[in-house]
Design a protein that fits this description.
It is a single chain. With 91 residues, this protein is mainly α. The chain is built from three helices and no strands. Helix 1 runs parallel beside helix 3 and helix 2 runs antiparallel to helix 3. The longest helix has 32 residues. The protein has one domain.
Length: 91
């Protein structure tokens, strides 16, 4: 087990958000369908964590959290756009 740390919390929330965005595939099964509300919730949790720890993080922890949020927000928009395009093509 890795030692408990702030970075591990951030990376755990990031992995959960990425799973909810459908960015992970497990085995040979089809890619999981994204759950945008749950992904948004994970991203919001990270934002709250960043806000509530402001001024108490090391530079590395701050950078990790900010970069993770930026990347997840970008991926959220990409997945949302992809789903909207797929829905438009079906219609």
């Amino acid at each position: 087990m890795p030692p408990a740390s702030f970075s591990l919390i951030v990376l755990s929330l990031r992995a959960q958000a990425e799973m909810q965005l459908g960015l992970f595939s497990f085995g040979e099964e089809e890619k999981a369908e994204p759950d945008l509300p749950l992904a948004r919730h994970m991203i919001d949790l990270l934002a709250v964590l960043l806000e509530k720890t402001k001024g108490n993080l090391t530079m590395d922890e701050q950078r990790l959290t900010e970069n993770t949020l930026t990347e997840l927000r970008f991926r959220f928009i990409q997945v949302s756009d992809d789903l909207a395009k797929a829905a438009a093509q079906k219609a």
